[in-house]
Amino acid sequence: MPRKVCEMFSDATYANSSELASLLRLPILRTLSTGFLFLTLTLSFAGCSQNDANHSADGLVDIDGIETDDVENSKPAQDADESVPEHPSRLAKFETEPAPIPLKQPVNRVSSTIPRPAADPAEEVFQRLIDARKNSNPTDWEQSERELEQLGKSAVPVLVKGLQSPDVDMRELATMWLVRLGPEAENIENDLASVLDDESDFVRVNAASALSHLPDHADRVIPILTQLLEHPEFSVKITAATALGNAGELASSAVPALAASLQGEEDLQLAVLSTLSRIGPAAESALPSIATLWQTTSSEMVKASAEEAYRTIQGESK
User: Fold this and answer.
1) How many angstroms separate the Cα of 185 from the Cα of each of 41, 123, 124, 191?
2) How many CB atoms sit inside 10 A of residue 189's CB?
3) Would residue 279 count as lying in a domain?
4) What SS3 state is found at 67?
5) Is pLDDT above 50 for 295?
6) Which residues 6+ apart lie within 8 Å of 170 measured at CB?
7) With 90 as the cut, is the pLDDT of residue 56 above it?
8) Are 195 and 207 in contact (CB under 8 A)?
9) Would you say residue 239 lies in a domain?
10) Cα 173–179–184 angle (5° rounding)?
11) What is the spatial distance between Cα 80 and Cα 239, in angstroms, rounded to a whole number?
12) pLDDT tens per residue across span 175-216
């Protein structure tokens, strides 16, 4: 519908609406006339609104709002299958929104100016040794042991630091290796003494073993090693038995427990016999047990060791 006709129709509709409104005062015509009136008004306004939108969209209204009838300047109609945006203003807004600015990558200025300290070789080797134990990897374990032996004294600070670790594996391996390094691990008595009451029996036996040759620590070490002779783990028992020999006569209080251990495994018997020989005459109370083992054992090695221990203790006691 052309705009002028639509406007005329709209004016006529507004004019007739007052007349129709007067007709509504009649009770009989109120219902029918109401529906007719709203239908007429709705169709009129819809037509005008649609034509206004089409004229604006097609560019047929100039900047002063005057309609142009130039058909040649009008845009061709859209095909039925082409999608026309219902709200052109939204599309324009979308097209004019600025693109997001990409974030710059952060620059690590600290690492570029301050070099990282070189890693301690002993710390790396010790950590690989711990990982090999936890992962049950014998190949890495043997390789790490060889490297740690080569490092020797330079590995002591790392091992001493490991004594205070919350990781029980680290504490056990640290004490074990401090014992293995022996004289190379100097001035660490106080560090080892601090773990004599550790919750791990492996830490306690290794720390006590390392301190067993120092008379100043005998009062604490000998009772710990004597108690550990009855430990269910064989490695703990044999370590304790061997370490007691380092104390010599100072380990005489452990002789009864050592004599009882002669009933154990062959390797334990050999370790105990050696320790009793080193204790010397103070181990005289163990002679009956040594004689019994000497006469009853089927192992030639144990028989020879028992005879030597017996003669040594008896000979020195005369």
Assistant:
1) 106, 16, 19, 11
2) 15
3) no
4) strand
5) yes
6) 126, 130, 162
7) no
8) yes
9) no
10) 115
11) 96
12) 999 888 877 767 889 999 999 999 999 999 999 998 998 899
| Residue at 260: amino acid letter | A
d(CA 303, CA 309): 10
Residues 51 and 133 in one domain: no
Structural domain total, the chain: 2
Task: Report the interhelical angle of 168-181 vs 201-211 (nearest 10°).
Answer: 20
* Final residue in a domain of this structure, among 64, 90, 110: 64
Supply the range of the domain harboring residue 25.
Answer: 1-64
Whether 152 is in a domain gets the answer yes
SS3 content of the chain, % helix, strand, coil (to 5): 70, 0, 25
- Domain boundary residue, one of 177, 211, 245: 211
Length of the chain measured in residues = 318
Amino acid at 305: S
Q: Are 62 and 68 in contact (CB under 8 A)?
A: yes
Mean pLDDT of 70-99: 47
Place of tokens 């009838």: 69
**How far apart are the C-alpha atoms of 284 and 277, rounded to whole Å?**
10
Tokens read off for 173: 């391996």
Of 282, 216, 286, 206, the residue nearest 248 (C-alpha):
282
For the segment 224-241, what is each residue's pLDDT rounded down to a tens digit?
A: 999 999 999 999 999 999
- Tokens for 310, please give them: 């017996």
Q: Is the pTM of this model over 0.70?
A: no
The closest alpha carbon to 1, from 38, 37, 44, 39, belongs to: 44
Same domain, 53 and 124: no
